[in-house]
Design goal:
- The protein has 26 helices and two strands.
- It is an all-alpha fold and 589 residues long.
- A two-stranded antiparallel sheet has the order 1-2.
- Helix 3 runs antiparallel to helix 4.
- The mean pLDDT is 86.
């Protein structure tokens, strides 16, 4: 655990503090190479053994209500997630090594400095043993995402996207912060293991409030309805950033937090049903919006929203093992899809689905990678995505037939937009050409495609990580789900060959506009949040600061008469000291 956790932080500190290294492309590449080896080595050690705990002692003083230690643990959940973050992040770093080669030397170093901070914050979130350190790393990750989404800050769209992502996720994080405060003053401990064990004995009202407030933070971080609007804007960052945000970090953190506290969640059926409802709503909403997008990365962004909805719904339905399995498989195939999209943009010069065509003729490796990732997303077994998504649908069906049916409809919609993508991007003659992808891009795509294909072999061991009964569906259900996915892909392919290249109509326009939700968020921001912020700013400047400044001014005025006592004369000072000592001697005597 130590190697995996420390590697990105050492790389970040080195690049952040040593400017000559950060400003040199070759020196930065040496740091990147060392970091990749550290992440892969740390992931291997984590998977096959290594220490299970790092304790840096008590974090807060004895006057604090609880004993909170700055401690990291590598339990079964952290091992599974940490190894996935390390491996997928390594593949993305290999890809970015080549993909970001056109940037200036200073921007190249700045990019990887921010990426290492991002990866380090995610690993800190994963291994944190209690709630308060997790929240600290959670917020660092939010800062890093803001920097990376707005990496090309000279572009107005990138600046706006970074700000929107920041304020929407901060809105949810206010709830999470209040949840931490509630836990500090009402729970006997913030340690996850002890807290989960003590869950049944916690006060019901306080426990419910805590869960609902945590859910607000999860909704912001993992782009759940109604706080999902920021995620499509995150596409303004470079492609490796999109892959990190959508696969191995950021959005995965919210689902991971739900998994961390799933034993507590399981004690409150009302909140569990709310979580299930939000997840199902998000899954359907994201799938419908993905059907009508005109940009390849936007389709993938909406698919991420949808797939996160599946995971959240699974946790709400009590199928935490299935949620974890899909979280891990999704990290591989979604990173593969986003990196494939970046490679498509390189060789075809665009991501506009109205102009994309002919990928097979110019880059067959990228074509195969796109196909593997797309089939896993659609739910085709034996690819890992097919097995993990099927487990969620079955698990949710056991809890609620209505919710399970809704997720099954979402799976059909997913297959439809996957078929549309494949029909548009792969066949035909390309309209334009960009430039060939480097060898590092091919290595990263091949590695992730292999992981997407073989991760299904670890289904039972991953499902057993989470407490509770393991839900494994029969072979005939897997075959049925796969046939349904293939049928959906076929229909979507035919649609993409026809009117599906640029879907028209009022419903398609509404879907591309997010069904009005971004506009509603903007109105809330402009008419409520900003005015409230201005009121708080006025209060801070003129009341809080005014009180402090008035106190300081009063002290200054009160001290003016005493200035004459000490005019700077040494003899006067010595005389005053002598008089003080004489007065003290007289009092004591």
């Amino acid at each position: 655990m130590t190697l995996l956790l420390a590697t990105p932080w050492i790389a970040f500190i080195l690049l952040a503090l040593v400017a000559p290294i950060r400003r040199s492309r070759n020196a930065t590449r040496i740091v990147i190479g060392a970091t990749i080896f550290g992440l892969l080595g740390g992931s291997a050690l984590l998977a096959f053994g290594g220490e299970t705990e790092l304790d840096f002692g008590r974090w807060l003083g004895a006057t604090f209500p609880l004993e909170i230690r700055f401690r990291f643990v590598a339990d079964a959940l952290a091992r599974a997630m940490g190894a996935t973050v390390g491996v997928v992040s390594s593949a993305i770093l290999v890809y970015a090594f080549s993909y970001m080669g056109d940037e200036s030397e200073s921007d190249y170093g700045r990019f990887f400095t921010e990426v290492f901070l991002f990866i380090g914050a995610m690993l800190g979130t994963v291994f944190a043993a209690n709630l308060l350190p997790l929240y600290a790393f959670w917020e660092v990750m939010g800062l890093a995402s803001y920097l990376l989404i707005g990496f090309h800050f000279e572009r107005e769209r990138a600046r706006r996207a970074a700000v929107r992502a920041f304020w929407v996720t901060r809105f949810g994080d206010v709830g999470f912060l209040i949840a931490v405060i509630v836990a500090v003053w009402n729970f006997p401990t913030l340690d996850f293991a002890a807290l989960n064990s003590a869950a049944p004995g916690l006060d019901e009202t306080v426990r419910r409030a805590f869960l609902l407030l945590v859910l607000a933070g999860v909704a912001g971080k993992s782009a759940q309805f109604p706080l999902h609007i920021w995620l499509p804007d995150a596409m303004e960052g470079p492609t490796p950033v999109s892959a990190l945000v959508h696969a191995a970090t950021m959005v995965a953190a919210g689902v991971f937090l739900l998994l961390r506290i799933s034993p507590i969640l399981g004690t409150d059926l009302l909140v569990s049903d709310i979580v299930l409802t939000i997840g199902v709503t998000t899954a359907l909403l994201g799938a419908v919006q993905a059907l009508f997008q005109r940009d390849l990365k936007q389709v993938l962004a909406m698919s991420t929203i949808s797939q996160l909805g599946y995971m959240v719904a699974a946790v709400g339905a009590g199928a935490a093992g299935a949620a974890l399995y899909h979280l891990l498989t999704h990290a591989f195939f979604k990173a593969l899809l986003f990196l494939s999209a970046g490679a498509v943009a390189h060789v075809l010069g665009t991501l506009d689905l109205r102009r994309l065509r002919g990928l097979w003729h110019v880059d067959r490796l990228t074509t195969l990678a796109l196909v593997v990732g797309s089939l896993a997303l659609a739910g085709v077994a034996p690819l890992s995505g097919g097995l993990s998504k099927g487990g969620i649908v079955v698990g949710v069906f056991e809890h609620s037939t209505l919710a399970g049916t809704a997720l099954l409809v979402g799976s059909i919609l997913t297959a439809l937009y996957v078929g549309r993508i494949l029909a548009i991007v792969i066949p035909g003659e390309p309209e334009g050409h960009g430039h060939a992808n480097g060898a590092a891009v091919g290595i990263a795509l091949s590695f992730l495609a292999l992981g997407t294909a073989v991760l299904g072999l670890g289904q039972h061991s991953i499902l057993s990580v989470m407490p509770g009964e393991i839900v494994e569906h029969p072979l005939w259900i897997t075959i049925g789900e796969t046939l349904l996915a293939i049928a959906g892909i076929a229909v979507g392919y035919l649609w993409g060959k026809g009117s599906g290249r640029d879907p028209a109509g009022s419903f398609a326009d509404m879907a591309r506009a997010g069904f009005g939700l971004p506009a509603i968020h903007h109105e809330v921001y402009a008419r409520a949040i900003l005015p409230f912020g201005r009121v708080l700013g006025w209060f801070d400047r003129y009341i809080v600061d005014g009180l402090v400044n008035a106190t300081a001014a009063g002290v200054v005025r009160a001290a003016r008469p005493f200035r004459r006592v000490d005019g700077g004369s040494l003899s006067t000072v010595l005389a005053a000291i002598l008089m003080g000592w004489l007065l003290l001697w007289a009092v004591i005597r």
